Amino acid sequence: MIRPRKALHHTRLAIWLAALALLAVTPASAADIEAGRAKSQMCMVCHGQLGLSVRPDAPNIAGHPEIYLRSKLRDYRSGTRHNEIMNVIAKGLSDEDIANLAAWYSAIRVEATAPR
Ligand code: HEC
């Protein structure tokens, strides 16, 4: 039989383990992919519905690393990276928008096939 003290100890241990497991699965960013999808409406005319470009001068942005997308959008917003179109567009984005957009585009899966 487990004595009360020991039972308490086990409960504490279980809570600790549960907390650790939660920490392990919670992503570092709380970015919202769905909000990113909604925001991406304003990007579609050039970058396509799923981040595959529909204009010859716009790059594909689907499947890029999240960190890369975030940093590029911040660079456009601050003007560190210069492009007339993207500077104007990024000016209107909040930190949250940028995080959500980066989460959305990075979550899109892209496949590559070597040329024959
Ligand atoms: C009117 C067309 C247009 C719209 C709308 C637009 N973009 Fe762009 N985007 C471009 C062009 C053109 C470039 C290439 C700019 C350059 O040469 O730096 C670009 C570049 C980018 C890049 C850099 C890609 C890389 O490989 O470094 C990102 C990220 C990006 N856009 C995200 C977005 C997001 C997110 C939105 C919507 C909030 C958006 N764009 C809306 C035209 C557009």
Task: Walk me through what this model shows.
The longest helix has 22 residues. The model has no long low-confidence stretch (mean pLDDT 89). This protein has a domain of 79 residues: Cytochrome Bc1 Complex, Chain D, domain 2 (Orthogonal Bundle). It is built from six helices and no strands. The structure holds heme C. Heme C (HEC) binds next to helix 3, helix 4 and helix 5.
Outline the fold blueprint:
Elements: H1 4-25, H2 33-39, H3 44-47, H4 66-78, H5 84-91, H6 95-107
The structure holds heme C (HEC).
Heme C binds near residues 42, 58 and 83.
The largest pleated sheet is described as: none
CATH architectural category of the domain at 29-107: Orthogonal Bundle
**Strand elements, count:** 0
Bound molecules: heme C
CATH fold naming of the domain at 29-107: Cytochrome Bc1 Complex, Chain D, domain 2
Q: List SSEs in N-to-C order.
A: HHHHHH
- Based on Cα principal axes, name the global outline: elongated
